[in-house]
Specification:
single chain, 172 residues, 8-stranded antiparallel β-barrel, 2 helices, 8% helix, binds manganese (II) ion
Length: 172
């Protein structure tokens, strides 16, 4: 289990490998789960092949849809309680959640009672995406999935707390 033991002043950031950075990004994911009990993947540091996206239908305490976009060797993730917008100009609240390992894009199964996110997970849509803008407050991208196609934006809602975003289906 990774642990934070302090900052290294003896090493410049440029000496860090992508693997080390990815492991740091997955620290929250790992710390929330007991891999002896949950069937979810631990993340073996699989290298990304490109730009995959997945939407998982997650019947947890409350049904929601988890949008995940591959970036920097992990899946950047948002929980969208009311479902992915499918009509132009539709907006839905999207709550940023912890980065997930790339292997999670293939995960379907039942997270047992008592575990974080307990309930069933199934893949609702999957495909590739093309980012157009990606900064800390705004992500614009095109989805190319089985169900979802076309232009989307994620816009950060700073005033509503640091994890609140809006997912918007843009006009073509
Ligand atoms: Mn979820």
């Amino acid at each position: 289990m990774p642990r934070f033991r302090g900052l290294r002043s003896d090493k410049p950031p440029s000496d860090c490998t992508l693997d080390q950075i990815v492991q740091d990004e997955l620290a929250e994911y790992v710390s929330k789960r007991d891999f002896g009990s949950t069937p979810e993947p631990m993340g073996e540091g699989k290298k990304g092949e490109g730009r995959i996206f997945v939407v998982q239908e997650h019947h947890a305490r409350r049904l929601h849809y988890d949008l995940r976009l591959e970036s920097g060797g992990v899946l950047k993730s948002w929980a969208v309680p009311k479902g992915i917008p499918e009509k132009p100009d539709q907006k839905r609240l999207a709550v940023k959640t912890e980065d997930h390992p790339l292997e999670y894009a293939n995960f379907e199964g039942t997270i047992p009672e008592g575990q974080y996110g307990a309930g069933t997970v199934k893949i609702w849509d999957k495909g590739s995406y093309e980012p157009k803008v990606w900064d800390e407050n705004m992500i614009e991208f095109t989805l190319n999935g089985q169900k979802l196609k076309g232009r989307y934006a994620l816009v950060r809602l700073k005033k509503a707390g640091e994890n609140s975003w809006l997912m918007i289906k843009e006009r073509e």
